[in-house]
Each structure stands twice: as structure tokens, then as C-alpha cells.
Amino acid sequence: MAKSEVFEGGDGDPVAAKVMELKRELQRIVKAIMVADDFDDVNLEALDKAHRLLCALKDLKIKRSLSSLKLHDSVAVPDEFRCPLSKELMRDPVIVATGQTYDRPFIEKWLKAGNRTCPQTQQVLSHTILTANQLIREMISQWCKNNGFQLPEPTPFSEDDGVTEADRDHFISLLSKISSSLSDQKESARELRLLTKRMPSFRALFGESVGTIPQLLSPISKSKSPGDIQPDLQEDIITTLLNLSIHDNNKKLVAETPMVIPLLMDALRSGTIETRSNAAAALFTLSALDSNKALIGKSGALKPLIDLLDEGHPLAMKDAASAIFNLCIIHENKARAVRDGAVKVILKKITNRVLVDELLAILAMLSSNQQAVEGMAEFEAVPCLFSIMRETSCARNKENCIAILYTICFSDRTKWKEMSEEEKTHGTISLLVQNGTSRAKRKASAILERLHRVVNLTHTA
């Protein structure tokens, strides 16, 4: 008798084994739901788990359907129809910022893992918007029709898909080992780092219990001083924390676990440069939530981030700058950053042409704070900003420069002389009125208008 299920394979079929494991787990959960006397007694977690298991089964069925294409030796799937990541026929082709096409679930998984480059070209993505490639989709549909195949409907990527009891058992085992001997701690921390990088489902597991994150951090939280911490152990644990913070559902839990931010601050000050960079990246990722921005700012984390930026290690500076930018979106953190010396450090880096794009954006954001503006005037921001405007071809950098200059000159009348001399010598402001962005033109026009008035008043006097 023919088998009715496409994924019921023979002995040794790993997909069939996985299916049976998922079905047994689903049967157990459904039975628990069905025997509840009152629906109000049904555990929401059980319903969520049943949903995840069903999604995982659906995904396996679709994969088996797609793999059936490979059984037809006479039919070869054209390379342009295969996803560069999965090497399988694309169901939902989408275009990334570099113009490359991928199957949506696989590129979403790539992005969810924290990657911000194109997998094929390795170019940094200017944005992460995915645009449907209708032409390729229609071509794939026609090819399937011509060859007698039915293309399954696209399935959205879920970070929680495929969590099994075996995964949970392994997860619990690793957390148990991390509280054991030093060798076990190192082995467990290393594996958790790798698993949370490669498998989003392991990130989700940390969000299921409030005690798992303190357990993860226990080897470095119990040390009496930074000198007692094993550098490689600290690096693996902090990197695992970064991986966890990528998962949207974990951000609040991670940041609000009392020991997390203090340990990230300790990591910013000590450890390997990768540890420090990843600690900054974790703070950046966590600060995506406004509530976390306030929490991180109050904790005093801006000062070690600014110090890390000032130190100037290429691997860590960008992560530190990104975290500072995100945190300073809320007003109270701008004042904290200024008090912690951000203006001086940022101007020094910009003067040396280090991370100009990122740091100009931070400086423009800080320019709404009066103490920051006074600091910019004190640390000779005006000539530095004008020199960048003359050098750069980046419209956004010019816009940020003129916005900062606008705030400085309208707050400090002593700077009008420098503005006048720059305009006479280079015509920098007038050029921006002609060629700048709409915002840059408005700021430049306002400066010129005021400059003409100041010059006329001087001549009249």
C-alpha cells in the first residue's frame, strides 16, 4: 500500500526520524490541552509550543516536497532559480540592497543572525528592506508548470521553529555544565556561543525562563575582580549574550536581568578586544527598545563606551559609536554623554577622519543639547566641520555639518567671524544653498541671511 505522507521515509531517513519526534511531542502537548477541564486552565505556553511544532512539521513537509525535484535526474533546476544560501529552488525570491536575489526565509534568517552584509558580494547592506523579485518568481512558476511540479507556498521564517525536547535537554545540560568545573564551563560556554549564533531556536530557549541568563553569566559574575576572569571564558559568555539580544523577544528580558548591564560594562573595560567589541554590540542591540535606552543610560554605560571609542581600536570603535548613537536618541542620554566627554572624543576622531559618517550623525544629534554646543565651540568644531564640507561628496555628511554649524553660530555670536571668513575664502555655505539637500539648503540659507545682516550691521557701525 502506498504511503500517504510525503515525509514518511524508510529506515535511516533523518527527516522521517525528525518528523516522528515532532509528531510525538505534538501529540503529548495536544493531549495535555484536550484533557483540561476548562479552557481557561490551558497553559498559553502549551498553545505556543503546539503552534511551533506545527510550523516545524509544515517546514519539513515543504522541504521534502522541494527535495523531490532532485529525484528527477532528467530535470536540472536552473542555477538562477536556486537560492545562493539554501541551494534549493526559491519559493519567495526577494532582492536585497546590493541587487542580489535570495529566497526570503533564508535571507531573513541571515539578517536575523545579525549579519549586515550581502552573502554573495560581502558588501555592507545600505538597508535591510527585502523587495519581491516578481520576474524571477513568475519565471520559476512557469518552469515548474512546464516540468510538472507544484511549487509550495512561501513559509515565513520563524525564530522559534524546530525547538524539540532533544534541543531543550541539550540546552539544560549545557547550562548545568556552565556551573561546574572550569574546563566544563569553557566547553559549555563555547558551545552555547556557537549554537546561539547558528540556531535562532537556541536564542528563543533562553527567553523561556528568567533563571537561564543568570545561570549563563554565573562564571563571570562570581569573580571577585576582572583579573580573576578567564579571558576566553568571558569572551564566549559575552558573545553568547550578544547573540541572545538579537532575538527581539529577548531584548527586554536580557536588559532587565540585574547583572547583565554591569557585566557588559566590566567587559567594555577589560578582556580581549573582541569581548569589548561584542559588549558594545550587545548594548547597541539591546538599545533598540526605548525602555532599554533609559535603563542602559542610567546604569552609566555611556562612559565606558566613550572610553572605548577614544581608545581607537578599529575592531571596537564602530560598535561603540553605534551604541552611543542609539542611546542618545533619548534626551536624557544626550546630557549624560556630554558630561562623560563625548564631544571632545568625537571631535578628535572626526578631525583625524575616523568614522566620520557615524560620528557626525552623533554630533548632529547632540547639538540639541546646550552643553554639547558650548563644548563644540570650545573644541574648535567650526573649522573642522567646514573642512569636511569642502572635502566630502556625501550629501548626508554635509547636511549634518551645516546643521551643527547652524546651532553653534546661533548660540555663540563670536563664531560669526569664522563663518564670514569661510564664506569669503571658499563660498562653502553658498555652494550648499545651491547643491545641498533640502534640509541643508534651509540651514545654509538661514546662516547666510544672518551673516549678511551681521556684516551690514558691522559696516554701518
From TrEMBL:
One of its GO terms (molecular function) is ubiquitin protein ligase activity. Residues 76-150 form the U-box domain. The keyword Transferase applies. It is an enzyme of class 2 (transferase). It holds the Pfam family Arm. Pathway: Protein modification; protein ubiquitination. Its EC number is 2.3.2.27. It catalyses: S-ubiquitinyl-[E2 ubiquitin-conjugating enzyme]-L-cysteine + [acceptor protein]-L-lysine = [E2 ubiquitin-conjugating enzyme]-L-cysteine + N(6)-ubiquitinyl-[acceptor protein]-L-lysine. Keywords: Repeat, Transferase, Ubl conjugation pathway. CDD domains: RING-Ubox_PUB (cd16664). The keyword Iron-sulfur does not apply. This is RING-type E3 ubiquitin transferase. It comes from Cinchona calisaya.
